[in-house]
Amino acid sequence: MEWIAIRSVYHFGVNKNGINIFEERVVVFEARDFKEAHLKAEKEAENYSKNNGFIVHHEQLAYKQDGSTLIDGYEVWSALYEAPLSLYQFYEEHYDKYLYHAENA
């Protein structure tokens, strides 16, 4: 069995200004392969979105863990991106630009 992290993206809600709020969520599953992990993740995401009134995006990204045991400090997600931006510009565009602030909700 392997540990596979699955990232799902949800429509979390709408703030008081009518701006959509999204959640990027990574959950780890123990599975024989990617197919089994995705099946588990689809069921978990469906339950999570249904229980919270969210809408889940149909695409999930998977990341197979390189080790055999999850331990403190263990990497559970890694993704690579390309952009003609500096590190700080990329971070601002990818994360800060659309960051949810609860006080604006």
Can you describe what's shown?
The structure is a single chain. The chain is globular. It has a domain of 65 residues. The protein is built from two helices and four strands, in the order ββαββα. The protein is an alpha+beta fold and 105 residues long. β1 and β2 form a beta hairpin. Helices cover 26% and strands 30% of the residues. Strands 1, 2, 3 and 4 form a four-stranded antiparallel β-sheet that branches.
Identify the notable features of this structure and list them briefly.
single chain, 105 residues, alpha+beta, four-stranded antiparallel sheet, 2 helices, 30% strand
Beta fraction? 25-35%
Quantity of strands, as a count: 4
Shape summary: globular
**Biggest beta sheet summary:** 4 strands, antiparallel
Order of helices and strands: EEHEEH
Concise summary:
This protein is an alpha+beta fold and 105 residues long.
Topology (SSEs and partners):
Blueprint (H helix, E strand, L loop, with lengths): L1 E13 L5 E12 L2 H19 L2 E2 L4 E4 L22 H8 L11
Antiparallel strand pairs: 1-2, 1-3, 1-4
